[in-house]
């Protein structure tokens, strides 16, 4: 049964309060762990991390050593801050060597909307005396948190019809406490991307296709996976078409065809396509070059996936490096649970599930099994699946305890610039 307006308003207030205190707890926790202990270095989570996780690994990386919001900045955050502060060619951004011996900033592998939003938020923050890097880092955290709040509102709205008020709140909460959920409060794109993507689904449900397509276009400019929103947009449009009336139309009744087909809504699908084409025109060539030559990523990169799976299986059989075994186990379990979630949500949430499947498949097959636990954070079917089980009190308490403990461990590792995802 659909919730009454007073209970819905009460739930929205609860979401805001949960979001607010979650943000304070995550950010505060990172400060506490950094003051309380230090990990053993380097990190042997993968074959290459030992060379990137020494105490002095970030010494020459200006965008990762600024003290303000430093606990929320690691790994890819360098490139988002660099783009926000000085553009894609800022000389302080780490470069990668190309086959011809030349070097190119690795920032070109990252999409522009998130750093552009960071720069916009950072501009007024500089009035408070923050230097450009500090302002950009704080701006990135603010954008991530606001995107996360939108994602919470949206996933609550999408699930409360099936799961009720408490179920909608639970789904949003499970998203926040997922083991990699701390990324939603860091200088990373996941918070903004989830907010835009899930907001798109809410607008599709309300048949506001142009607004939904606009959010899909913005999501596409945040991560390439945003283009996958085309498919649920198309399914949403198809659901508005009266196919029986369409078959009964006379061939010459152009106006009736136009009306029945809801062509205006169909045309909205061009927005995310145009966003992707614009990115590809201005940045695509360099982005693909860096992705392939430096990060070893590409569309359906079966060779890279095969090599990565071999390394994963070797770590399981050998077990002599516990860091690596546990890391790959977390990646594998994250992928398996996400696949199962998609199977169990397809009937009630076809569009959401289709998007989740595309995100999962494209992410996993782009390279070796790496960062999967972060990638599945943008698989919304996962939280719906878990929330259904959460109707059972024992599962709810058990999953919450397990997830929060894992969240604390991974957030701690990220805080110390160790490899998480």
Task: Describe the model.
By secondary structure, the chain is mainly alpha-helical. The chain has one domain. Helices cover 66% and strands 1% of the residues. It has 18 helices and two strands. It has helices spanning 5-36, 62-65, 77-86, 113-125, 132-177, 190-205, 209-220, 230-238, 243-248, 254-261, 263-267, 270-293, 302-318, 322-345, 350-364, 372-375, 381-389, 393-415; strands spanning 95-97, 103-105. Strand 1 and strand 2 (103-105) form a beta hairpin. The chain is globular and about 65 Å long.
Q: Main beta sheet, described?
A: 2 strands, antiparallel
How many E strands?
Answer: 2
Hey, roughly how much beta strand do the residues contain? under 5%
Rg from Cα: 22 Å
**Percent range for helical residues?**
55-70%
Shape: globular
Distance between the termini: 39 Å
Q: Unreliable runs, pLDDT <50, ≥5 residues?
A: none
Number of domains: 1
Order of helices and strands: HHHEEHHHHHHHHHHHHHHH
* Tally of alpha and pi helices: 18
SSE-based structural type: mainly alpha
Mean pLDDT: 94
Strand order of the largest sheet: 1-2
Summarize the structure.
With 421 residues, this protein is mainly alpha-helical. The chain has helices spanning 5-36, 62-65, 77-86, 113-125, 132-177, 190-205, 209-220, 230-238, 243-248, 254-261, 263-267, 270-293, 302-318, 322-345, 350-364, 372-375, 381-389, 393-415, and strands spanning 95-97, 103-105. It is 66% helix and 1% strand.
